[in-house]
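Schema walk-through. Below, the input block comes first and the output block second. Nothing else is stored per chain. Lengths vary across the set, and this one has 448 residues.
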Amino acid sequence: MPERTIQEFTAAEYRQYLASGQADVQSFFDQQLAYAQGVQDRVQAFSSLDDRVIRLQAEHRKGERASAEPLGLLYGVPVAVEDVIDTIDFPTTFGSPVHEGRYAVSDATVVRRIRNAGAVIFGKTETSEFAGCRPGRARNPHDPGLTPGAASGGAAAAVAAGVAPFALASQSDGSVIQAASFCGVYGYTPSMGLVPRTGVFQPCPSLDRIGLFARCVEDLALIADLIAGDDGQDRATLGLPPRQLLSICHAPPPIDPKFCFVRTPWWDTIDAEAREAYEAFLELMRGVVVVAELPAVGEQAVEWHQRIHEAELAFSLQREYRNHRGRLSDALLARVEQGMRTPALDYLTARDRMPHVACAFDEYFEHYDAILSPSAIGGAPGGLGSTGSPVMPMVWNFAGLPALSMPLLSLSGGLPLGVQAAGSLHDDGRFLRAIRWLVDDFIHRGRS
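--- output ---
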């Protein structure tokens, strides 16, 4: 078995490597910067990659090793951050020339929490225009001629290319799940309200969530543990305490988890090769995964999701529309103007349906630890002008349920394809534990 390179390390392995003194933090980041520049030339995952800022952070972390204070759980670990999440030392432009050169006056809550745990912000990743329309410059590390995904594509590409072991991102429709599938990494959106969004651009506050990319389920649990919990500012998280996600994820399940797979109403739109891969997955996992039907409300949820997205996007971008219309893409202008025409009754009705859709799956979670489904309708599309349909994750995003894409399948040419899982609302620990068990079981069956 070939020896793993440091670019394949998990966040926990990075921390052990640097905190133990096996490598000097500053020397390590000099090497990692050289590696990242080569990746950037080919993949263009980053919108901002500043050697000086990264080296200053590394110097600060090196000084911490000389103190008597214990080192953080992310000591020296590089992290990529999507360009909709505020950072004080890198610009945050929301993927638009309207906000070119914008620096935030404070870090987003999630950024502050990972900094406090010892992480080094390695740069800001490409996002689509206001996390919605015109794609950024990022390319897929598996094939630079393919898209890495939409708003979160740059963050997923940075992890897939080995520049950072994890990344912070965002999701309004399905960008985290879809980009994870296209790039072959784990992508996780915690339950709505678990992670505060203070300091994060929110085009659609009813739908927007923080997302995470990593190379293993345990890292997802570790990072989510560190960034979760009420910060007193995001109304969605008010009164919600942090969860012990990592300890629950690491614990063996009391009984073997059970899973169901829903083909969804969009099964016939999936590429033929991707359908074959999902059918092969079901055959391999027979006895652990059973096939079930998605309730009828799932199809309606996508329509309600789109109605909310259009209306709230128009509201969020009213200043840019009024003052900088000529600097917005035609596609974004069309979406904003469509949102302006959305009847208030239609919008409020769609908002009212959100908790009801979440409750529609309660019966499933009485029998199953997670509901599985396709992460995307196929592999990464060719070219950079289209990022494909995000329909597969939209039901779970609308319902606010925790969702995760697992990089379990492959298409021709070695292109990755994810399997999506959704869990019970605010039961993320049990959900992550079940997914860790499923991944281990899948790997074991594949080797047998």
